[in-house]
Design goal:
single chain; mainly beta; 3-stranded mixed beta sheet; 1 helix; about 10% helix
């Protein structure tokens, strides 16, 4: 398993992180995403120790990719924006998820 994995730095050319890639890596607390990243798959970082992430601009984050308590920021060379748990409420309404199913994340900086 990956229970002792504490951090990950991806190659610059990485475009996709597949579904469940790091799910259950309970010690994973630090991730450096490359600017070329286009997609983060469902459950990719579920049940990790992540509390915040800095996402590349325009990355597509699939359902349940992160735990709902993970704060995100999106950065690009020209601007930076931030989202918090309030963005979960917006995406929750957009996708019709019930209050008990807040385990959803989407990059709201589009």
């Amino acid at each position: 398993g990956c229970s002792s994995l504490a951090s990950v730095a991806f190659p610059d050319a990485l475009q996709t992180i597949e579904k469940e890639a790091f799910s259950g890596c309970s010690s994973l607390a630090s991730v450096a995403f490359p600017d070329a990243l286009q997609t983060i798959g469902e459950y990719a970082f579920e049940a990790t120790a992540l509390t915040s992430v800095n996402l590349p601009h325009n990355v597509e984050v699939r359902r349940f990719a992160f735990d709902p308590n993970v704060r995100s920021s999106s950065s690009s060379s020209s601007s930076s924006s931030s989202s918090s748990s309030s963005s979960f409420s917006r995406t929750q309404k957009k996708y019709g998820l019930g209050e008990g199913k807040k385990r959803f994340y989407e990059n709201s900086a589009r």
